[in-house]
């Protein structure tokens, strides 16, 4: 099923969510935001009152995790059971907790199985799957594998703009902390063999979409 995957990895604030979504829409493909799944799991752990530093508590939460997430780029709602968590998973409280949850390797194995199942069952001809370890772990055999990067300054500025926050330095700090924690688990800052780098530092949104579409054209 890896041949159905357009794999896009990148760090926080690289623009990979909005770019992946736009590319999926343009091509009529599905879209899977794997970060949203990890965020929903972190929300679920916090909701249960469990300690995100307690690996067995995190694993227990992952084993009882009724995630509902669609593949439609125009329907970004995420549910855990009956609770809609679409907005809640963007909360700074969740952002701060998510790396701890994503660090547990048995959790990653379970979550990855769920991602692969979703792609296999997808009603789309292909699915743009976006995350940190899609090009290397989830779908290393995908025909199209892209690492979307941007300089730390550009990423912080974009993220701060998104949040309409004044303090770019504080945002830069939070991103640096999360990237640091995340890259201890998966390396998403250097491209693995065969992975194409798209650096969006000097590209605007449409130029970045075109750069990604050009790679897909060449590879798919
Ligand atoms: O992409 P986003 O910033 O929403 O991801 C949230 C978090 O989920 C990341 O900081 C990382 O801890 C985790 N994640 C991951 N592997 C992925 C996608 C996200 O560990 N494939």
From TrEMBL:
<keyword id="KW-0963">Cytoplasm</keyword>
<dbReference type="GO" id="GO:0006220">
    <property type="term" value="P:pyrimidine nucleotide metabolic process"/>
</dbReference>
<dbReference type="InterPro" id="IPR011994">
    <property type="entry name" value="Cytidylate_kinase_dom"/>
</dbReference>
<dbReference type="InterPro" id="IPR003136">
    <property type="entry name" value="Cytidylate_kin"/>
</dbReference>
<dbReference type="GO" id="GO:0036431">
    <property type="term" value="F:dCMP kinase activity"/>
</dbReference>
<keyword id="KW-0547">Nucleotide-binding</keyword>
<feature type="binding site">
    <location>
        <begin position="10"/>
        <end position="18"/>
    </location>
    <ligand>
        <name>ATP</name>
    </ligand>
</feature>
<keyword id="KW-0067">ATP-binding</keyword>
<dbReference type="GO" id="GO:0005737">
    <property type="term" value="C:cytoplasm"/>
</dbReference>
<protein>
    <recommendedName>
        <fullName>Cytidylate kinase</fullName>
        <ecNumber>2.7.4.25</ecNumber>
    </recommendedName>
</protein>
<comment type="similarity">
    <text>Belongs to the cytidylate kinase family. Type 1 subfamily.</text>
</comment>
<dbReference type="Pfam" id="PF02224">
    <property type="entry name" value="Cytidylate_kin"/>
</dbReference>
<feature type="domain" description="Cytidylate kinase">
    <location>
        <begin position="6"/>
        <end position="217"/>
    </location>
</feature>
<keyword id="KW-0808">Transferase</keyword>
<keyword id="KW-0418">Kinase</keyword>
<dbReference type="InterPro" id="IPR027417">
    <property type="entry name" value="P-loop_NTPase"/>
</dbReference>
<dbReference type="GO" id="GO:0005524">
    <property type="term" value="F:ATP binding"/>
</dbReference>
